[in-house]
User: Fold these one by one.
Assistant:
Number 1:
Amino acid sequence: MKRFVNFFKNDRLWQMLVALFFAVVLFFTAWSGNTQNKNNSSSASNTFTQTVESVPVDIKYDSDKYFISGYSYDAEVYLTATTQLALTTEATSDTRHFKLVADLSNLGQGTSRVPIQVKNLPAGMSAQVSPSTLTATIGKKASKTFDVVANITPDKLANGYEVKKVSLDETKVEVTSSEDIINQIDHVQAVLEGDDNLSDDYDGNLVLQAVSSNGTILASSFSPAKVHAKISLRKLSKSVPVKLELTGNKASNVSSISYSIDRGHVTIVGSQEDMDKIDSITVPVDISQVTKDTSKTLDLTAEGVTVQPSTVKVNLKVTQKRGS
């Protein structure tokens, strides 16, 4: 018992034990905190992200009373999810649950900006929308009937073709827009959509556009939405003469060289602008190595057009000098 009491009376030994105790406590506290931070870091890094483009925006407004214009139909969404399956599901349009909504239902006429909201996003996911707002012009709804004119521009045709005739199944359509836009409409045109260039007659639908007097396409809806058309094409062509140009010097034993060609004219096909630049096609023939009668088939080319047929046969008749 006396030794036990003396142990506690030994200040140096007591201080060492207390210090050792606190050192052990601090070690386990630091180890526990480091383990927790690693777990949190692992959890934070276990996320999946994807940017989804062209997500449609559902616009809420009184469509019986108003017509809206001047807005973007879609937005970009940056998705974050804790599982790859959830991310893939929401990034794919066919399996997507969330939608983008812009609510204009409590607004009147004029230009307004409202937030784009993300609705029905599954738990464990987050979404950032760009742009985050939608700007639209709200106008009083109006309708009016207009004549339709076909407008098949040269850029919709293959090189060397022009429109011969266009017939439309519908010559009048009803246009719906805001009162302000209706008053700006000069005409309604039916045009080809897509980037294909026609090289054959066309039998199909044309899209409609409301156009102002200065050529601006105006926001409108149409009834019917499209018109059926038959378009007949005509090939642009021109007949031009073929000319031969003899180049080089005759061989020393050759007195003269005469020539004939198997065709005097060919047809060129191309745009009217390119064909107007061409009055004939000249073919150079090198005679420097010609010492006897010979025939050559030469290519016919001209800038910006197709030549039909694309070759010409040249017959060269050689007259040699006397004594050669």
Number 2:
Amino acid sequence: MVNARNKGRRGEREVIDEIKELLGIELEVNYAQTFGGGHDLISPNGYMPYAIEVKRRKAITQSDIKNWWDQTVRQAKKVDLLPCLWFRQDRADWKVAIPCPYSSEKDFFPVEDVNIASIISPELWAAIAREEYNIGTRDIITE
């Protein structure tokens, strides 16, 4: 049987490595999350506008994504950052959920509504981070 905590830590490490590859920046595990219930990954220099939550599971349901998004939004609001949920099920690629621009910038829809969150690839997330927030240095070419 796989220990859920160890699987979660491996997932966090995978995301840290993926973000380093995509953006050239190094994030760290937020060890204070165990006590304070905060988001999973932090920027030691404070240049990340996202509160990143990481979830990895054998199988993922829409209900899981909704619950995780609720948690991600709550944690992001505590620290006045944008919610960002990285998730993947076994033998699948990572996906990233971020707020729809109409919810975060224009307040047309509540950011808590998972139905209007944008679920995108890590590559697109990195492109948004570079273009919108001037994060990272790498030029990524996708086919």
Number 3:
Amino acid sequence: MTTRKIPGRGSGDRPQRVSSGPARLRMLLVLPAAAATAAALAACSSSGTPSAASASGGSSAHVAAAAVGLKTAKIGGATVLTNVKGFAVYSFAPDTMTKSDCTGACAAAWPPVKGPATAGVGLTGKLGTIKRPDGSTQATYNGHPLYTFIKDTGPGTDKGNGVNAFGGLWHALTASGSAVPASISSGSSSHHHHSPATHAAVTTPPAPPATAPAQPANPIPQGNGGDHDADNTGGPSDGDGNI
């Protein structure tokens, strides 16, 4: 931009600003470029910075996908595998290492443990997952698909241990993945934890002493001790060979 006097314009021939050709052209070129740069920066800022809603949604999804924790707890006289809340987890005898045989009403009573799972302190068994018929993922421990039991109303109970339902036996598991004997866990339901019944001792009365059979009476009249034949006068023989 330059200034110069233009004669004949009045007002004392004050200097007037006149744009030179090259400077004006440069300004016209710079302004659109600056506008384009600002638009690009705004677009990058909008796409690169997640909104609060999207950030919150991502956090929720991460929490939902968090692995289920497993640990051990003492239930009665056994160390039993449980979830992080202390509820016993079970295996179902008809299951295989790759397939659950508990669906429908069975799965409603024995909810599958969602996979994957993580092992707590002291657990050295192999963790894994299987795909259930409905497409969900179920946690396994040493090849056993895992379940909880709806009748376990609080931590420290294993009311499903030893139950025969939906076509097979259910067992609580030890840290090694073996079945917990039903007679050990005191937290189980009474139908498989009865104490042996006690009975009062029964004494047998002694047998009565044996008695000699009664001898039949001798029909022969006896006199003088039976040693004289005179006492049998007119009678039958008394057996001594004389009459």
